[in-house]
Write a structure and sequence with these properties.
Blueprint: H1 2-33, E1 43-44, H2 50-59, H3 61-73, E2 82-87, E3 91-98, E4 108-110, E5 114-122, E6 125-131, E7 136-142, E8 147-151, E9 155-159, E10 163-167, E11 171-178, E12 185-193
Parallel strand pairs: 1-10
Antiparallel strand pairs: 2-3, 3-12, 4-8, 5-10, 5-12, 6-9, 6-11, 7-8
Helix pairs in contact: 2-3
């Protein structure tokens, strides 16, 4: 009886692991070959949650297609700073150009209503990312501003042209950190409505 129970548990575990591996392979295949690229020459950073990206893309294909089309077809070197509305509050763009901040003048943050797609068009900046679950809230979520702040450790990347940084609501991120020698940074941030 014990041996039968053990075999049943073992089979269940194997099926679960294999299903997870299969789903992971499917996501990896979708990510590499998927229609979302549509000629886009920018690559998401290596730490991005690909499964979450796939889920969000499938739930809000129209919004993502607008965002990615903007990044593909706009001359990001020449676009003027300002706000560009692509689809009301569902997809909009903020372009800034100016100095980044010293590390201690930046904050960990997360959003609930939007996904941040951050792209450095000129210069370089450091960006950190850590799961919200591994961060400590220092300022509770502000519904009006759609932001919460944290203290945390995390992984830091040097963001530069060619790479997209996509932060979901479960990602606390710390952008706008100055990189020595890059006094002026041009940044394009596309906000895509989170499909919960």
């Amino acid at each position: 009886m014990k041996r039968t129970f053990f075999n049943i548990v073992l089979v269940a575990v194997c099926v679960t692991v294999l299903a997870g591996c299969s789903a992971s392979r499917q996501t990896s295949h979708w990510f590499k070959k998927g229609p979302w690229y549509n000629g886009l020459n920018l690559v998401p950073y290596s730490g991005m949650d690909r499964k979450e990206f796939e889920d969000q893309y499938r739930k809000n294909k129209h919004g993502w297609d607008l965002a990615l089309k903007y990044l593909k077809e706009t001359d990001l070197d020449k676009v003027a700073p300002g706000k560009y509305v692509l689809d009301g509050d569902n997809v909009y763009v903020s372009v800034t150009e100016g100095p980044d901040k010293e590390f201690d003048k930046t904050n960990w943050e997360s959003h609930r209503r939007v996904i941040d797609v951050q792209y450095i068009a000129k210069g370089k900046e450091r960006m950190g990312v850590v799961p919200v679950s591994a961060a400590t809230v220092t300022r509770p979520y502000d519904e009006k501003r759609d932001v919460a702040n944290y203290s945390a450790g995390g992984k830091f990347y040097t963001a530069e042209p060619g790479t997209l940084y996509i932060f979901f609501p479960n990602d606390a991120h710390r952008p706008s950190i100055r990189v020595e020698g890059h006094d002026i940074v041009k940044k394009v941030v596309v906000k895509v409505r989170y499909a919960g």
